[in-house]
Amino acid sequence: ELHCFESQSTISFGSFPLPSQHSFLNLTCVPSMVFPLQLISDGSVVYAEALWDHVTMDDQELGFKAGDVIEVVDATNKEWWWGRIMDSEGWFPASFVRLRVNQDEPMEEYLAHLEEAQAGEEGRAGLGLLLGPGLPCKEQMRTNVINEIMSTERDYIKHLKDICEGYIKQCRKRTDMFTEEQLRTIFGNIEEIYRFQRKFLKGLEKKFNKEQPHLSEIGCCFLEHQTDFQIYSEYCNNHPNACVQLSKLMKVNKYVFFFEACRLLQKMIDISLDGFLLTPVQKICKYPLQLAELLKYTNPQHRDYKDVEAALNAMKNVARLINERKRRLENIDKIAQWQSSIEDWEGEDVLSRSSELIFSGELTKLSQPQAKSQQRMFFLFDHQMVYCKKDLLRRDMLYYKGRMDMDHMEMIDVEDGKEKDFNVNVKNALKLRSLTGDKVHLLCAKKPEQKQRWLRAFADERRQVQHDRETGFSLTEVQKKQAMLNACKSHPAGKPKAVTRPYYDFLLRQKHPSLPTALPQQQVFMLAEPKRKASTFWHNIGRLAPFKK
């Protein structure tokens, strides 16, 4: 399986575990080892052609592009071979290459076939003899991709079945060792995923052409179930909690022995439970990669081309949605901690309606009927905006002063000059008015660019609310309560709050939702996210200047 790492504007797929490691599940079919082993042991030079790109960040692995010719030096391990390209050597996945049919053919002649294949149809037919009987190069490549998708899907179903029947079923019998809450934390909604994947595989099998796999039309299967794949969001969001819970249990010997007995009873491969539980996370990462390869080797004239193209975009969107939900859930603890740092808080918790900080900054506020000018710090969340007053002496302390319901407010851009509702001269102003017309707030920024940034922020807030409605995103009551409970633990009752800059820290940790759309989005989870450099979005933090996109 591929572990996906996102690094700003570049994407790398790696690193594959070396043969001695067992932290992954290889779900691909592996060709017979007898042929290469026999040739290598006889002293022959064995060549293989790369069917897929193998991009790696590990020095011990051999990177290559599809079509590269690799000298196979060691094939004793059935999944990972040691190979050489020019002066580079390293491990590579055996399932990523196809052995040459005629190993005795001189290397120069073989490379000549590859060049001819790129030059025209005559050369393509010659290469077809090397890659497989009776199929041109691109059709053979499409056959390989289709077969890989089908085989990995069947193996994945088996792994899910092993987890559900080998572990969960046995755990439920031991009420003295596990509660239902513990099992829900460890295994998440994997049983729901198992039921869906069985239905999905049946659809793939119906569209799979066994006699001529390259003619299979499987793109429609992904399109038909694109909304069903969203169930992975719950599993992926829960996975860190599962790891923590499982780690606690594995410190007790009886649980170590119990889980090992479950594995042996189900006759599962020698991988720990946490390795099995990682497979759904890896699987949802892999679908866009497989579909991209399928599209690469599908002719535009193929009946499946448009469906595969649409399926690739659909699965990228699924991955992007899961990624966004994961980020949102990671932020709710920070929002709860921020609220706990605000003095004199009144009313419901921010998390009761909101889960995202859209923007924040200092504005001058005028409200009817007194129209008194007040300097306030504003925090715009989805559905609501909270405003606070700074402490006169301790400028890092905020006092709660009120909030506005953004679902029942309209934003109005105010021109510089006389404002009729308040009968005052204004500059860089905007107005928030309730839909019923009984409440009007006039907000003034110090600079024109700050006003424009606020106008964009209010538009972003409405788009975020609409997007959440369309995708069905919401926080559960359990998630809200747990976040507030964690925040209370950080400020125990009876103890003074630490003199910190909590809301500064909160703002600095936020990731703005308006990410550049050009960034590749199909990679979902960074299980070990690298540390990032300090944000460049902020300047003059001591004066609380609003950040700029």
Automatic annotation (TrEMBL):
GO biological process assignments: intracellular signal transduction
Major place of residence: cytoplasm
PROSITE patterns named among the record's database cross-references: DH_1, DH_2, PH_DOMAIN, SH3
Gene Ontology MF term list: guanyl-nucleotide exchange factor activity
PH domain span: 356-463
Ranges where the DH domain occurs: 141-325
Presence of keyword Cytoplasm: yes
Highest taxon above the source species: Eukaryota
Protein name, entry field: Rho guanine nucleotide exchange factor 4
Organism: Anabas testudineus (Climbing perch)
